[in-house]
Specification:
Blueprint: H1 2-15, H2 39-48, E1 51-55, H3 61-78, E2 84-85, E3 93-98, H4 102-105, E4 119-126, E5 129-136, H5 139-154, E6 163-166, E7 172-176, H6 206-217, E8 222-224, H7 237-250, E9 256-260, H8 265-268, H9 280-296, E10 302-305, H10 322-333, E11 339-343, H11 355-363, E12 374-379, E13 403-408, H12 424-431, H13 444-449, E14 459-463, H14 476-490, H15 496-508, H16 515-533, H17 564-568, E15 574-575, H18 592-599, H19 609-612, E16 615-616, H20 627-650, H21 658-690, H22 705-709
The structure holds beta-D-glucopyranuronic acid (BDP).
Beta-D-glucopyranuronic acid (BDP) binds next to loops.
């Protein structure tokens, strides 16, 4: 390795190129890079990590994976292979063990409260020798602890006096792949689906193992393989065999496989004439199907269901409600310990009610009616993964029904692959929102943790941003969204900013010349997107269907709630959706304290203003500016913020490897161009509606409104 570096340096000098890029990096390694640490850190850590010892049943596969990972990491970071010994403890060894082992038990570690997935990392003494212990109640816990230890080392934090205790606050920490059987990915912007269904089950891409490693390293313990807009074919024998092959690859990493189930499968592949959940033949069909799946995948997790939503079939087709549907499926998987994740993302075009109210209207009356192996999966906001939405009113409103959070990791509405938008602040904002369900401090995080209502099942789902792109997620910074999702699923109280720092250190090295700048860029990025796309509580102004670029003028689509004009309601006098008593009264779906706050224009946070209120163009905001002037200023601010992010990134040129630096640099140029387009097109339209001129000093849009309206993207990705 040393020779290679010397050779590279020589080459750089010969070619007259600055040796900025010590190693070419294409992003494939994600945050598991294991590159050599700075020499002084290496020298220090080598003293404390002289061997790996596993004090555990030799057949415990996750622990063996942990040993492999530690060896690989130490070799990469410390530049020398570290020997692994069976059970004989060496001085300064890293000892992996479960609580079943006498030597671990003797240490009296606080493992009692940590469940099967928590871990302790501690500097300790075994057989009189100083060691670093990674201990847990199961092999998977040891694996999680090992990844945590590796990350600690990667960040240059050393092995002295360690005492780290951690356990997940949520049981289900899942990715939802919206992947189709033809390898397209709905709302996927990182290439094709990584599941090569055609070659499965025989050929198992090595990438599947790296996928499992990456997920295990951030605590993700389950994956729904196929799109919620599911094909019944996923439940046929050949596809069950393919899913089983993936399950075999993931099992050693503590990851279970789940499938999205198409409600009408009994008709489509079962030859039945109905999918009525109360029909005994239908129930028997699902039971037999579940038995068949469990024969192939004994630890199959269960089903995810999108029913009676956006044209998908469901129990309401038979005048049955969501609980009747979910419970029938729940009975089918119950003997095997499986669960049903039933989505609350429902709205009907024949329902004239405010779309933001419909899920609550459907589900709230069903509180307490779901079987105990059902969990209702609720999107973070009541519309759809917008750059900003107030928290979904169902959180806190269903004390007798476990609810899990659904976030989108892929950036359907935030600029797809190329815009830099770190979603940590979005997740944190929602998780820290106070539902007031049981008084002050009833945050969404506490609701989904089960801390408020004692939910037995708890969980979080993230719509994956993973594809066949070499860097997995379509850009380096999109990887951070996968990473922070994992961190927040493990601990919904995690700080977005702190996670961005950790991610930066793992991704670009623990370099003080890099981390603060990267953290600043990331911290500002989501708000920048909000500003140039949908400031002040606006939502759903994206172009039709692919949701890429501005389309606030769209008003002629078949369903009212597909049209941006439905959401902004701008006219000559003002803009915004009145969701107070004088309008749709959606505010009444929140607890009284929250409802009162949102009902009053003066107490509504400005960031949510136009979500809840129709405000006059000339009304004054906190800044003292009129709404019109403030709206324009926000768009301009958003464009400026992207320019700032870009400038800050450029200062990092000497510190970041060439390939990843250049890609992000180019993407930021794209984002700058597109932020400007968003601003200009939006302002061209708002000016036409409000009849107001742009405030002094604001540059006019480069094109006319009809020119912006004419822009179309017939071959955009992700559909
Ligand atoms: C929307 C997407 C659509 C999904 C739907 C869902 O535009 O592609 O099918 O959500 O979550 O965000 O079911």
């Amino acid at each position: 390795m040393g020779r290679l570096i010397a050779w590279c340096a020589a080459l750089f000098l010969t070619l007259g190129v600055l040796p900025v890029a010590a190693h070419a990096e294409d992003g494939y390694d994600l945050w598991l890079r294991y590159r050599p640490l700075p020499a002084d850190i290496q020298a220090r850590d080598r003293v404390r990590a002289t061997a790996v010892v596993f004090d555990v049943d030799r057949h415990d596969i996750p622990t063996l994976k942990a040993v492999d990972e530690i060896e690989r990491a130490l070799e990469g970071m410390l530049g020398a292979a570290v020997p692994t010994y069976g059970q004989a403890v060496q001085a300064n060894a890293i000892v992996l063990g479960t609580s079943a082992e006498p030597r671990i038990k003797a240490l009296n570690l606080p493992l009692g409260q940590l469940g099967t997935e928590g871990y302790v990392i501690r500097s300790a003494t075994i057989d009189g020798k100083p060691v670093t212990v990674v201990a847990a109640n199961s092999g998977v816990g040891v694996l999680y602890g090992s990844f945590a230890l590796i990350q600690h080392l990667q960040r240059g934090l050393g092995l002295d006096r360690l005492d780290i205790v951690s356990a997940p606050k949520l049981k289900l920490r899942l990715l939802n792949h919206w992947d189709n059987l033809d390898r397209t990915v709905e709302r996927g912007y990182a290439g094709q689906s990584i599941w090569d269904w055609w070659k499965l089950p025989d050929f198992r891409e090595p990438r599947y193992t790296d996928y499992a490693r990456a997920n295990a390293s951030i605590g993700i313990n389950g994956t729904v393989l196929n799109n919620v807009n599911a094909k019944a074919d996923s439940l046929t024998a050949p596809y069950i065999a393919k899913a089983a092959a993936l399950a075999d690859v993931f099992r050693p990493y503590g990851i279970k496989v789940y499938l999205s189930a198409r409600w009408s499968a009994p008709i489509e592949i079962g030859g039945l004439r109905t999918a009525d959940p109360l029909d005994p033949q239908v129930a028997a069909w699902w039971k037999a199907k579940a038995d068949e799946i469990y024969r192939a995948i004994p630890d199959f997790g269960g089903f995810l269901v999108k029913a009676n939503s956006e044209g998908q079939p469901g129990p309401q087709d038979y005048k049955r409600n969501h609980a009747e549907g979910a419970n029938m499926l729940a009975a089918a998987v119950r003997p095997h310990g499986g669960i049903i994740m039933w989505r609350a993302f429902v709205y009907q075009h024949e329902n004239p009610e405010d779309r933001a109210k419909q899920a609550y209207d459907d589900f709230k009356p069903l509180d307490g009616k779901f079987a105990d192996n059902v969990i209702v999966q609720v999107k973070n906001g009541a519309i759809d993964f917008q750059p900003r939405e107030p928290f979904h009113p169902l959180f806190g409103a269903m004390p007798k029904t476990p609810l899990m959070m659904e976030f989108q990791i892929t950036k359907e509405y935030l600029g797809m692959a190329t815009h830099l938008a770190y979603l940590g602040p979005l997740y944190e904002e929602v998780l820290q929102a106070d539902t007031f369900a049981k008084g002050k401090g009833s945050t969404v995080a506490r609701v989904i943790e089960g801390a408020l209502d004692g939910y037995k099942l708890t969980g979080m789902a993230g719509v994956a941003n993973i594809g066949t792109d070499r860097d997995w997620s379509g850009s380096t910074f999109n990887q951070a969204n996968w990473f922070v999702y994992g961190r927040m699923a493990w601990n919904p109280e995690a700080s977005a900013k702190q996670v961005s720092g950790e991610w930066s250190e793992l991704t670009f090295g623990p370099d003080p010349a890099i981390t603060p700048a990267v953290v600043n860029i990331m911290t500002a990025s989501r708000e920048a997107v909000v500003n140039y796309m949908t400031p002040l509580g606006l939502a759903h102004l994206m172009a039709t269907s692919h949701h890429f670029g501005p389309g606030p003028w769209v008003k002629d689509l078949a369903r009212p709630e597909w049209n941006p004009v439905y959401y902004h309601k701008a006219d000559r006098n003002g803009i915004g959706y009145d969701r107070t008593r004088t309008g749709s009264d959606a505010v009444a779906q929140y607890a009284p304290e929250v409802a009162r706050m949102f009902a009053d224009v003066k107490t509504t946070p400005e960031r949510d203003l136009l979500w809840f209120h129709h405000v006059g163009w000339d009304d004054r905001l906190k800044s003292g500016k009129t709404l019109w002037d403030e709206l324009v200023a926000r768009y301009t601010l958003g464009v400026g913020e992207v320019a700032d992010m870009h400038r800050a990134w450029r200062t990092l040129a000497p510190h970041i490897d060439r390939e990843r630096f250049a890609k992000t640099d180019t993407f930021l140029s794209i984002q700058q161009k597109e932020a400007q387009w968003w601003r200009d097109a939006s302002l061209a339209y708002w000016t036409s509606v409000s009849g107001r001129p742009l405030p002094a000093g604001e540059t006019a849009p480069a094109k006319t409104l009809p020119e912006y309206e004419a822009i179309s993207w017939p071959y955009e990705p992700g559909r």
